[in-house]
Amino acid sequence: MRRDRERMRADRAKTRAAMNTGDEKHYLARDQGDVRRFIRNYVDSRRTVAEFFLPLILVILLTSLIGIPVVQFASTIIWLAVMVLLIVDLTILGMRVKREVRKRFPDDPGKGHVLYAITRATQLRRLRLPKPQVKPGTLV
């Protein structure tokens, strides 16, 4: 059991290093392949509301704790607006990813690609694994 744990620990370390350096051979199975690379690059080449969602919600939460009713009301309105923007943004992203994957990879069955793109888009850019390989604004 100890050897198995050590082997699994070494495999996880190798995978983590590969995700940081961009060695696609050692990526997790969910991140491997041309379609997933395209989706990662497609998401990473754009700035979206989703990637700013967590910091915005943190600021809104802090302002809602202020004891002034007007500020609390304003933070509630801003929270609702951010939620609507997030839903619209992720819906548009999902439709675009689905369309681009169908166009560029017609033989691909297309299962799970939209969810993969949405989960990647909602992560902070610095914390995304595998690391982004394209800069925002780059055409994919």
How would you sum up this structure, described in words?
The structure is a single chain. The protein is built from five helices and no strands. The mean pLDDT is 91. The protein has 140 residues and is mainly alpha-helical. The chain has a domain at 33-127. The protein has helices at 2-21, 34-44, 53-64, 69-104, 113-121.
**Major beta sheet summary:** none
Report the sheet-strand fraction.
under 5%
Order of helices and strands: HHHHH
Q: Round the Cα radius of gyration to an integer and report it.
A: 19 Å
**Regions with pLDDT < 50 over 5+ consecutive residues?**
none
Mean pLDDT: 91
Name the shape in a single word: globular
Give the helix/strand class: mainly alpha
Helix content: 55-70%
Put simply, the count of helices is: 5
Total beta strand runs = 0
Q: What would the keywords be for this entry?
A:
63% helix
Topology at a glance:
Layout: H1 2-21, H2 34-44, H3 53-64, H4 69-104, H5 113-121
Helix pairs in contact: 2-5, 3-4, 4-5
Short description:
The chain has 140 residues and is mainly α.
